[in-house]
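Each letter names a residue; structure tokens follow underneath. Both lines appear below:
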Amino acid sequence: MTRQMASARPLTVGIDVGGTNIRASVVDGDGEMLDTVQAPTPHSARALEDALDRVVRELCRRHPISAVGLAVAGFITADRSTVRFAPHLPWKDTPVARRLSERLELPVILEHDANAAAWAEYRFGAAAGGHNVVLVAIGTGIGAALLIDGELYRGTHGVAPELGHLQVVPDGRACPCGKRGCWERYCSGTALADTAIEMLATDPVHSTVLARDIFRDPGSLTGRRVAGAAQDGDPLAVQVMADFARWLGLGLAFVSDIFDPDLVVIAGGVSSSAPLFLDEAREEYARAITGAGHRPLARIRTTQLGEAAGMIGAAELARATLIDSGRSRSRVARTSH
């Protein structure tokens, strides 16, 4: 396969490497997805790299691809070449970018999935026009990303910002990270189910719908189910969503006290239920922020690109790296002459 840039805005592939599925899309310079393939995520490092190789080659047979970006939920080194640790993937201190680049004969970059989503929203979606932007991706837990003056902030070691693990309740709910009382334990899809179970334990007749679900299968209650019950007017589920909104607003106040963003984007699976909680969260945020009533507030929006943001952002970051590399080579060539 020939690997040459077709234009100043070449086609690139963005891949969302999830714990269950790999989703890969060809993305053009306008952030439009032209073609998508999906495959199950294997459980060994070699098998996962083989699967990534196959999906990229399938897309390369149909499109002139110039680079590849991978969005990964995990710790990525600052140079975006190595996965230090990914809780749902088999890579540990693995030079994934180099390995795949050698196999595919294409430039490959890695990015944290929240960073990739934030970059997509900044370039093509809800964060367009923002300067200092926080993206909060609320799903099973909380992922987060920060743009400062339009540049992704990754921290010294490439792992910032872990906002989901800010401690909001000393000695609170246990978190898989090893701490207790983390923000995501009160403000996530998992938290919706946990809060509902706690409320049902004190008042089991307050929601016959959710109580019946738990009675049939104690492990079946999900955040999506709680949100659906709230949408249908279930009183306990509505109360759970109000509790969620309070924690979201408080957490955003903490984040704003530290970063002072002009824009916050709420993404992730729970964002689809935003009409159930976002107005209340905005009100709580406005009350809880330091200097309330005497400072501008960040605009709070929901994602515009949805689940596609990670793929689009990874592809766009790969394209930017490719173009920057081409400009560097041009400068060197001019200097040598």
